[in-house]
Amino acid sequence: NAFEVNYQYTHKRGFISLETYFRGTNDKITRLSGYDTIAGRPVFTSTTMNANKDNSLGIELMTNWELARWWQLNVTGNFFRYQLNGQVEGDEVKSVTTSWRTNFSSTFKLKWDTRFQFSGFYNGPSNTLQGKREGFFVANVALRKEMLKKQLTVSINARDIFSTGVFTNISEGSNFYTYNKGRRESPVVTLNLTFRINNYRQAANRQQDDRDSDAGGMDEMM
Q1: Half-sphere exposure of residue 58, counting CA atoms within 13 Å on the CB side?
Q2: Most buried one in 23, 50, 83, 127, CB count within 10 A?
Q3: Which residues contact 147 (CB under 8 A, 6 or more apart)?
């Protein structure tokens, strides 16, 4: 169930939108952990079931703006109250979180058909029925160069450049406590080469692709 009220201001340089929303889910899929004894041996269990009901009430602000002919900025911020209801070990549990998240991308148009992008996102902490998840931040950079009359595209991407992609979860029950912390390998650098054998796109389509790329960041790069 989703209900939204939106307002958008449009300008020749971009747009700014404001959205208020309420969203709810019945029989939400959730993961539950537990501790049991099977055949005399202690066993830690983890199961998934449709056991919860949740709702979110929040406000989201988004802007996509051309600060200069060579600089495009896209920023989204979301502030919300999240409530989760369900059963844990036979008891009704309600968890309420007030949190926020944001993502951004800043694209710079350089000379010689070259573009540079710096992007990132932050997810704030949130509660679960059995614990909580800590917030985390990830930043990426990308560089794209077009050559041979745009038939050849070379892009270099670096993910999680500050090695901040750490994911921490805490769960606890009447007879167990778990603390999980995961860190993926970072930064990860990739090189992509794209060669168009038959560049059949019309000029109008190419212009539209450029506009879409400016509006949404360099998805091809990321």
Answers
A1: 19
A2: 127
A3: 113, 153, 154
CB–CB of 209/146 below 8 Å? no
Walking along the chain (222 residues) 10 residues at a time, the average pLDDT comes out as: 94 95 90 81 83 90 94 96 86 89 95 93 91 93 90 93 92 86 91 81 55 49 44
What is the C-alpha separation between 62 and 176, in angstroms, rounded? Answer: 42
**DSSP letter for each residue of 114-131:** EEEEEEEEEE--EE-SSE
Residue 121, class by beta-carbon neighbours within 10 Å (0-12 exposed, 13-18 middle, 19+ buried)?
A: middle
- Residues in Cβ contact with 24 at an 8 Å cutoff, skipping those fewer than 6 apart: 1, 2, 53, 54, 55, 56
CB half-sphere exposure, 164, CA atoms < 13 A: 13
Q: In the numeric block, which tokens belong to residue 6?
A: 């939106």
